[in-house]
Amino acid sequence: MTRSAARRAPARYRLRVSGHLDQSWSHWFGDLVVTWDDDATTSLTGVVTDQAELHGLLTRIRDLGVTLLSVEAVDEDPRH
Amino acid sequence: MAGPLISTKLRVPRLRRDLVARPRLLERVRRGADSRVTLVSAPAGFGKSTLVTEWLAGDPADGRSLAWLSLDAADNDAATFWRYVVTAFQGALGGAGSGALELIGSSPLPTDLVLTTLLNELAAAPGDVWLVLDDFHLVDSPEISHAMTSLLTHLPPHVHVVLSTRADPDLPLARWRAHGELVEIRAADLRFTLDEAAEYLNTVTGLHLTARDVEVLEERTEGWIAALQLAALSIRGRADVGGFIAQFAGTDRYLVDYLVEEVLAQQEQAVREFLLRTAVLDRLTGTLCDAVVGGDDGRDMLTTLERANLFLVALDDQREWFRYHHLFADVLRARLLAEQPDLVPLLHQRASRWYEAHDLADEAVRHALAARDVVRAAFLMELAVPAIRRDRREATLLSWLEELPDDVVRRSPVLGVFYGYMLMVSGDLDGFELRLDDAERTLAAAPAGSDPRWAQTEELRTLPATVAVYRASIAQARGDLAGTAEHARRALALAGPDDHLARGGAAGFLGLVAWAQGDVSSALTTFAQAVSSLHASSNLVDELSSTVVLADMWRAAGRPSTARRLCLRALQVSEAHGGSVVRATPDVHVGLSELEHEVGDLAAARAHLERAAALGEGAAMTEGRYRWFAAMARVADAEGDPHEALRLLDTAERLYRPGFVPDLRPVAAARARIWIAHGMLAEAAAWARERGVSATDEATYLHEFDLLTLARLLIARHRGQPDSDALDEVLDLVSRLHEAADASGRAGSLVEIRMLSALAHHARGDRVQALEALRHSWAGAPEPAAYARLYLDEGEPMRELLRAAGTDGPAREHARRLLGLDTAADPGSGRTRATLGPPPAEQLSDRELQVLRLLDSDLTGPQIARELFVTLNTLRSHTKRIFTKLDVTTRRAAVRRARERGLT
Predict the structure, then answer these.
(1) What is the pLDDT confidence band of residue B826, given thresholds at 50, 70 and 90?
(2) Any domain includes A8
(3) N or C: which end of chain B has fewer CB within 10 A?
(4) Residue B276 forms contact with A (CB below 8 Å)
(5) ipTM for the assembly
(6) Strand partners, B134
(7) Was domain B846-900 assigned CATH 1.10.10.10?
(8) What predicted TM-score, i.e. pTM, was given to this entire model?
């Protein structure tokens, strides 16, 4: 992400974890969209207000004991 | 004891019955006895707490003291955290830690002092002491991490700490690992092996699975214990076990989702609802569950759940309080949020009301915040303010306030003023003032002086006076004496007769203003009021610290015996109370030392300073710490060691911080006086230039000490190089100072001024006038016998005058008394013998200083050698040289000497 993009908050993020998480977790994870990927992983995607919120989400993932595979900022909303 | 502590957090959790023996891990935990820290670091559901509990239950406890603390998110506040830690130690060691506990009630939290006190108390504990901090990931504030590092670094060898955590803490783990001081048990160690899984599934839960089924489950769960427990619950009572396991193995779903769904499907509807609704609670008890669920069988339900092994953990032996296993609680909460989002705030509101009715303010606030009911949350916070203040948990309140919208905070005068106060603590005076403006506006606008949304508390009632005291403190910080006095007077007018805290604060500011202006008589009246208000508000530490200031005022008024009486009474009070009050005691000893010094009893003066230093090792040195060094400097100089005196003054200067008390004896001027007495006039002249002191300056009290120093310089210079114009200036200056001191009733100042006037006349050769001034210095003093060093420090010219005055006349006893005390007149001893040349060659090298600092710790010799990466022999030779240079023979004495000289 470019410097200006880093400053531009909020930003879209995608968090990938292993296993298929139920749709019911969406609210728990700040209304991120829960998508099941073919390789038995789940993507949690959506707008994150700031870094503090992102770290809060990571703590929630830690507390569930699911394996975190990646965290990335995604510039564009894929639907556009 | 201050502050509500949840006692269940200090209990070792009950050991589960369905346990798999884990000898390989227990062996590791036992190795913690040889190290500093044992770290059990793994995600939720890996059996961390169970492992530690199992070790405690299984190993003989002979001679071992155990302190256990289960942390929660509210402990991420330093004062709360340390109060729990110390209380846990107290429970383990029976009484130890009361000193540290009292200190935690001070503001700002004296973390270093709490740690030192705690470490001293731990060092004295017999046998091994273990502290277990469970769920340490919940406290991650930098303040706590920093203090924990310090505690763990200085831990005596017989004290061990076990940290169980989901995330590696911010501690120097790498260093301890490298030094072999860390035992680690991590996720890879904690996972069930195939054998352990088989034992659990077949022997412990009695499922009798095939070896192949066990293998599949172990592989699918990767030995994650929580998942295996859920799997066992799902399998229980199922006909087609093989089919279930095959299906479980084949799904990509997150194991916990899959298994919790299976477990919930097996429960009755009522049980499922109960689980989901009570999941919003961190702790559960029957009536609380009833209030939240709207039922009446909470207690029975909890018993049923515990019996069915549904992830309920009992928190006490009476089975009153429980909690869900964290992982299970998260799953339930997420489901509740997804299925019945509208219900969540309602459940939190009910919980908040139950907690409020049970006087558990913190939980009531947290649930109100979780319900997003900010108006109610603000109301509850207002109610909680007095307790928060008393327990010094300002950080907790601040973190709550940050969750409220700004307009809600501003609407509440109590919360707004508190928030402003926290802004001031972080240095934002302007921000604080704006909040005070807000609060006064809001208070004025409220019809009938109040608003139904505000909690009717003592805090609210006394707020107008409190705001005025705060305004006085802002004015004082800005050096605005007139403003300080104006606000303080307004505060006194606004405060009721029983608002002791506001009255004490306001009177204190008024007294200090009067003092800084030299008006000692009104300073004495108002400051004595402040001290008695502090007494009435039971604020002992502030009362004692203020007593020292009051004693200084009596000295300025020429009444050292009153000052002495006040100090001695303060000592009695402090000794009777012990504990945190000890903090104020070193300052009292310093005050007494100065009084003894003045009457010429150097041994007593030194003894008080040594007593203060000994207390200071365990207790704090407050902002008055610099004064210890200044007082010791005067003793050293009087004993004939001006080098030492100058070194001590350097340290005093470094430690000096401007505070509430006016700086009436600037250290730089004290140093110049030593130079003058030893003929180093060029250095003294440089001081006067840099400080900008001139004989024509206005004779204010704040400037008096500087001007009297300058007068000595000019007199001394005249003796070497006669300059009658300069001497005229001195006489003019002295007479102006005399006038100012006389007008304000500062009899103490007058003694010194008249004594100097005698010296000035003597320098001019006018013995008649000189003797007249000298006699006047005694005749005009309320307690002439209390002054000795004032005269003796002036050396030969004064001695000559004393001899003349001692032959006859009304003052001859005074002169003879002083001459009798004058050891310096004997050949071979005393101040006149000492000369100030280059300092003796006893400078410590950098390396020696480094060693010295480590000697001032709890580290053993070998530990210090390791810290420095040197052999023990090298360390010994360093130590020997240090001892020689400091002229001591023990480590303890070296440390004390080093502290006296400000080397460590």
Answers:
(1) very low
(2) no
(3) N
(4) no
(5) 0.84
(6) B70, B164
(7) yes
(8) 0.68
